[in-house]
UniProtKB/TrEMBL annotation:
Transmembrane spans: none
Gene3D superfamilies attached to this UniProt entry: Creatinase/methionine aminopeptidase superfamily
SUPFAM superfamilies per UniProt: Creatinase/aminopeptidase
InterPro entries: Creatinase/aminopeptidase-like, Pept_M24
Peptidase M24 domain: residues covered: 158-314
Record's protein name: M24 family metallopeptidase
Native organism taxonomy: Bacteria, Bacillati, Bacillota, Clostridia, Eubacteriales
Length: 354
């Protein structure tokens, strides 16, 4: 709130039509809004933060928010007006945005009701877009600590899915592996935030993502898997090579291709410098890759409470250039990203050691 210059933030939600930000501000056991629910955050001039609620009474919610609404003496809107008048904030942030879906959670109906009922404070109402982004993208130290083991769960699932325990060449299909992954996620009591995909590349076939087909020797398998656990989302892509019966290791050319991609991953990671914009990270990464003789494609997105999270966009798979507005947002500390990229060498000269 201090960084964005907003000293009062009002987050409103209706039951079963919750603002995505609201869902991250309530304890897990609360689950949903109750009828009309409202949270108010106020940061005073001494940097003391108040966390207030104008929602229906809730023992779960009251562990974290001070209840301010007495339904016997006032309406929720009267309670909100009273809170504003008593604190006299310089502005009132609400969740509206033209460019960021996750920061645009205030419904049209509530927007109209808010303006009708807060008429005397209307001149103070501003968009809390940057505040929403900052809240959703920032990971606590505990979340950062837990993210690694959460990702390891996904890696374990994929490694088993791509093993001989699941795949029998010339018999198992890509769809069967997809279903196995979905069932495994379900058996572990986890949630997939998107349907896992499994596809392959095959020598002699130009199509680079073949799906719904039988897996055979010499195929290069690819998967994309994302789970949600402890409130955090993952987005993991892996590749695997299906050995021929007479092979004991992956062919040298495939190893070289993977090494090229690893080199590009390092380039991108090194360009993740705080305060650089997404477009600056994209441009510098692509320029460095080009100098090393790589033909690269860069797409990386924020990840956290949501799989396709909010924050700086660093390239798009269908726009390998400057991304207006969302690409101009800067990188901050304690934020997380999924790297989705590929690279190939433009000439045959072995692997360039960086």
């Amino acid at each position: 709130m201090k960084r964005t210059g907003i000293d009062m933030w009002v987050v409103l939600a209706r039951e079963y039509n919750e603002d995505p930000v609201y869902k991250t501000l309530i304890p897990y056991l609360q689950r949903t809004a109750s009828r009309l629910s409202g949270l108010v955050f106020y940061l005073d001039s001494s940097d003391v933060l108040e966390c207030l609620s104008i929602s229906r009474p809730s023992p779960t919610l009251e562990k974290f928010y001070k209840g301010m609404w007495d339904s016997n003496t006032e309406s929720q809107w009267e309670s909100l007006n009273r809170i504003i008048s008593e604190r006299n904030p310089k502005n009132i942030g609400i969740n509206t945005s033209k460019d960021y879906a996750l920061a645009d959670g205030l419904s049209q109906g509530l927007y109209e009701l808010l303006h009708q009922n807060l008429s005397i404070h209307q001149s103070k109402i501003v968009s809390a877009e940057k505040l929403c982004i900052g809240w959703l993208e920032t990971r606590s130290q505990l979340e950062l600590k837990k993210y690694h083991p959460i990702y390891n769960i996904v890696i374990d699932i994929i490694e088993e899915a791509f093993s001989s325990r699941v795949i029998t060449p010339n018999k198992t299909t890509t769809d069967e592996v997809q279903w196995w992954i979905m069932q495994r996620i379900n058996d572990l009591g986890l949630e997939a935030w998107f349907t896992p995909t499994v596809d392959l590349q095959r020598k002699g076939i130009k199509e680079n993502r073949i799906s719904n087909t039988t897996i055979t020797h010499g195929d290069i398998l690819h998967c994309d898997v994302g789970i949600k656990y402890l409130g955090l989302s993952t987005d993991t892509q892996r590749v695997a090579y299906v050995l021929h019966p007479n092979e004991t290791e992956v062919p040298r050319g495939i190893k070289a291709a993977l090494s090229n991609c690893n080199d590009f991953q390092d380039i991108v990671a090194e360009n993740f410098v705080p305060n650089r914009t997404g477009n600056e990270i994209f441009t510098s990464s692509m320029e460095e890759a080009k100098k090393l003789g790589m033909k690269a494609m860069l797409y990386t997105h924020p990840i956290g409470y949501h799989g396709h999270g909010i924050g700086p966009i660093i390239g798009l798979w269908d726009n390998q250039g400057v991304v207006p507005v969302r690409g101009d947002y800067p990188l901050y500390h304690d934020t997380c990203y999924a790297l989705e990229l590929n690279a190939q060498k433009m000439y045959q000269s072995g692997i360039i050691k960086r």
